[in-house]
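Hey, I was hoping to borrow your eyes for a little while. I'm sending you its amino acid sequence along with the C-alpha cells. Take your time with it, there's no hurry, and the full record follows here.
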Amino acid sequence: MNILAQVLSEVLSVSIWSLSIGLVVGGVIGLVIGIIKRRIKFTLFPAILGSFLGTLVIAFVPLFSIPGLVNGGAYAGIYVLAMLIVLIPVGSIGGGIAGGIRGCHRSTPLPRRTLWFSILLAYLLLIIGILVRVVVFRAG
C-alpha cells in the first residue's frame, strides 16, 4: 500500500470514529448544558463540534502517531486499549464541555473562519502525525 492510500484510509477511519463519538457524547453534553441554561439551540452544535475536535486531537493523534502501535502485536493492543480508555473520554467530554460553554455564553455563532481554521488545524496535526509514523519510522 502506498503512503497516500495509507494516510487517506487512516484519516477516513479516524474521522468516522471521531464523528460517531462526537455526535453521541457532544449531543448529550450539549443537551444537558442547553437544558440547564435554557439555550439548547445555541449549545448543541458547538458541543458536538467540540467533542469531535477533542476526540480527534486528544485521543487519535497520539494513537496514530506512535510507531509500533498500529501493527505492534498483542502488547501494543493492550497499550492502545489503555490509551483509548483514558484519552477518548478526556477528549470527547472536555471538548464537548468547552464547546457547549462557548456556545452558551455567546449568542452570536462562531465565525466561519475560526471554524474552518480549527478543523484544518486538527486534520493537519493528524496527517503530520501519521506521515511521521509512516515515512520516518516505516511502520506500515
